[in-house]
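Example record used in the benchmark description.
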Amino acid sequence: MDSKSIIKELQKYHSQKNIDGMKRFSISGKNMIGGPGIPALRKMTKQIGKDHKLAKELWDSEIHEARILAGFIDDPNLVTEDQMDEWADGFDSWDLCDQVCSNLFDKTIYSKKKILQWTMDEREFMKRAGFVLIAAAAVHDKKAKDRTFIKYLSIIKKHSNDNRNFVRKAVNWTLRQVGKRNNALKAAAIKTAEEILAQDTDASRWIARDALRELRNK
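Model output (structure tokens):
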């Protein structure tokens, strides 16, 4: 399959009703088709296989769903650091950010470097991408040591006053994912959440209370 035929297939799913529904969930990227959903995109991924060149062509189309598919089919072993920066700079919706980061970028050799770099970035989706990479590592990287995530908890605490919607939700999600990794990290995450709560800002109160509600009930 080439990029033109794939995009033509994607266009068959165009639905303004679905686009309007996606916007109600704060999914408002440019050039949205409104379908197919993630399960159908994953099915297409199995048919296509890994293809770095094709992934770049799909990304360059600037079509929302084609870009999500690009993240599914790209080969993490061939992804460059420049590519990661370029794609992350193009994130314009939380779902695109989360899918590309948790299905592709977290598998690259640059993921740890990008966590440190992107969480310091002031662009909303770039910053979110850094935290999504931490959350993805908490779920996917079974060999990572606890000390790695302890370091990440300090990053979470540092940025828990950012009240931008897509940042604070990512910080909260990341804190919960680290805490769910094992009992030792759960205790550390609860302690971090309590320290975040004590900062007593709108963002920190929301992040901490939601995280503590889940972590204390696990």
